[in-house]
Write a structure and sequence with these properties.
By secondary structure, this protein is α/β, with parallel strands linked by helices. The chain has 16 helices and 11 strands. Bound molecules: nicotinamide-adenine-dinucleotide.
Length: 436
Amino acid sequence: MSALNIEEPKGRLGILLPGLGAVATTFIAGTIAVRKGLGKPIGSLTQMGTIRLGKRTEQRIPAIKDFVPLADLNDLVFGGWDIFEDNVYEAALNAGVLKEPLLNSIKDELETIRPMRAVFDRNYVKRLDGRFIKEGRTKMDLAEQLKEDIRRFKKENQCDRLVMIWCGSTEVYLKPQPVHKNIESFEAGLKENHEAIAPSMIYAYAAISEGIPYANGAPNLSADIPALLELAKQTNTPIVGKDFKTGQTLMKTILAPGLKARMLGLSGWFSTNILGNRDGEVLDDPESFKTKEESKLSVLEYILQPGLYPDLYKDFYHKVRINYYPPRGDNKEGWDNLDIFGWLGYPMQIKIDFLCRDSILAAPIVLDLCLFLDLASRANMKGIQEWLSFYFKSPQVPPELYPEHDLFIQLMKLKNTLRWMRGEELITHLGQEYYD
Ligand SMILES: NC(=O)c1ccc[n+]([C@@H]2O[C@H](COP(=O)([O-])OP(=O)(O)OC[C@H]3O[C@@H](n4cnc5c(N)ncnc54)[C@H](O)[C@@H]3O)[C@@H](O)[C@H]2O)c1
């Protein structure tokens, strides 16, 4: 198999983050801390993962970062937009995820990262009200202003390349509509201030038209519309989404494949959460919650395939609740009750109480996405990067495909894609040759 031609990652990689809240600041401060040896990048596949090559007898298991040419952490520069003027040090303190002594030890660096004025409209995130926002006659004007920000950032920070990851709040639920159909309708919509064009789509449009890889960490549509996919293909831009897979959904996509593998039935899965960060506050609004709920609910349907296994999964009851509870801050608690059944239909229960830290789980995902999207761009891979669905609750796929949610299949796909990029044999796990 021949390897792809991948450009070397020379120079600096600028990371642009719309939304400098809990996730983004935990990612930035964490990466700077890792750079200084103050902590380890736990949870990051690009930094800690290995990849097996060839046969099990060959013992070739390099680190992923030695196998594919990824940008070095020392070459990353950070920037972003927010509706609040706080610099990243202030915003990180505010988010209350990382401890103050750690933030103080890198304060000088964090304070230099100041947000640019946001493209924001309260109609799409009802629970927030910010004043640090751009003004423009049309949504197209706003997109142009974002493009100017991007170019200025690139020049001032002497970046060779850029990537953009949406870490902004979850917007209200929108369905794809005719205005999203192709580039012409979308650009006309930008000029007419069409109400089905949300701010996250304006950022995505600005990035993709400049050829900047774009990932969406929230469940709102953003780049998951035909117009922006068409634009991504036209501008040779890799895109991926949606909604970082952390916490409860991560657990679901670990457990559900296991139940199905053993042909155990499921009659109900009830999930409830308490969380008290700003994300929790935004999700307290029913319209933003609806976007999140759609994203969280689909996972089990796809993994368990009730159509194929009616005796095991037909009509299982699935409920997801998120409750805003300020005392816990970013430290969420998620409870799951699973009613399962086994041999002859005998019922059993599983209870999970996950005391998790949302942004601690999300930060390494942001890092991996930055590095892998930049790799994809240098390898000339454009459009949807389904091999990165490992990181998402609602993986973006072309309309004719259903998304793959099983974490282990997603990981295999990711690693096989890396092998394919480097011209290595794909691993099928057949292994007959060991017994010949
Ligand atoms: N933490 C997780 O585990 C996790 C998992 C999946 C998805 N997410 C999603 O990631 C996003 C960020 O999560 P968070 O915990 O950091 O939330 P957060 O509320 O702490 O941060 C979001 C930030 O985005 C800003 N913002 C909102 N609209 C904006 C706009 N139009 N332009 C620029 N900035 C804007 C807000 O002011 C805020 O600072 C949310 O949408 C959340 O649902 C988080």
